[in-house]
């Protein structure tokens, strides 16, 4: 699936331009030293340095294959897992287990209505036409709004379309839609506004509850290592020993900061993992409590469990 805002890519290094989650997933696998060569047109690739095969499937189908235990691990959007789970009969537990939030592919499945109009909140759509590619989640959402049990008839009419969902209101097929929003450009261009959120999503690593092996543990541990490395930076600084306890509270690390004595009397060096998104604030606070020579380094890989 190509992003409709982008021109087709002609990147020789990656001839597979489909899939919003694909490039980040390939980068993640490279970071785990999973080596493979995918032949053009083939959806399966044997890994050279591990006894596993990779299968390239549409994001929406991955939860089904993983749930059936036909594929042991999968990378897809949380929205797709939620949609799969919403199709299960009441009382049936999903065989798709989320192991790890991968941090990329962030988007929201939102209820959207024409910007100009009198529909203000999701309950205004009750009894009307709603178009979506996520029929199970939309059904569950409106059942909840209408207070209707599974098996009873819903008054809201939910129709499936496979793509270009945002066109449904302008074409008179829908009063509202339930569709993914990332930048919001598509919604805006179609004259729609979001009035509720059904699911907030990022890409996730999922595992089949039917599968278990040392190899799965090894692979998920490698993936966790790369994701942790991407989320954190290593922060090193020098601090007067009498300020160490206050500085340690600012940089507590994943387990605890590493403290090393300095040749200079009364000073210590501290090394600690800090979340990338808060490093600027952490540096500001360290300066305030007397830290100096603050260095921040990217982490190529990590293994903390
Ligand atoms: N703007 C977006 N639109 C659609 N999906 C998005 C967006 N941003 C992130 N995503 C995530 O990407 C998932 C869709 O992934 P992707 O495009 O890889 O689908 P695909 O079916 O594998 O691709 P293809 O149709 O090319 O085979 C969504 O379920 C969602 O989790
Ligand atoms: O908020 P934005 O960044 O604009 O992204 C959201 C749009 O992207 C997806 O469509 P996609 O491009 O996958 O095409 P499709 O409509 O054919 O599914 C999604 O269904 C929205 O239409």
UniProtKB/TrEMBL annotation:
GO terms for biological process: L-histidine biosynthetic process. GO terms for cellular component: cytoplasm. The keyword Transport does not apply. InterPro entries: ATP-PRT_HisG_long (IPR020621), ATP_PRibTrfase_cat (IPR013820), ATP_PRibTrfase_CS (IPR018198), ATP_PRibTrfase_HisG (IPR001348), HisG_C (IPR013115), N-reg_PII-like_a/b (IPR011322), N-reg_PII/ATP_PRibTrfase_C (IPR015867). The keyword NAD does not apply. Pfam families: HisG, HisG_C. Its main location: cytoplasm. It catalyses: 1-(5-phospho-beta-D-ribosyl)-ATP + diphosphate = 5-phospho-alpha-D-ribose 1-diphosphate + ATP. Residues 229-301 form the Histidine biosynthesis HisG C-terminal domain. It comes from the Eukaryota. Pathway: Amino-acid biosynthesis; L-histidine biosynthesis; L-histidine from 5-phospho-alpha-D-ribose 1-diphosphate: step 1/9. Its EC number is 2.4.2.17. Keywords: Amino-acid biosynthesis, ATP-binding, Cytoplasm, Glycosyltransferase, Histidine biosynthesis, Nucleotide-binding, Transferase. Residues 59-224 form the ATP phosphoribosyltransferase catalytic domain. It is an enzyme of class 2 (transferase). One of its GO terms (molecular function) is magnesium ion binding. It is found in: Cytoplasm. NCBIfam families: hisG, HisG_C-term. Belongs to the ATP phosphoribosyltransferase family. This is ATP phosphoribosyltransferase.
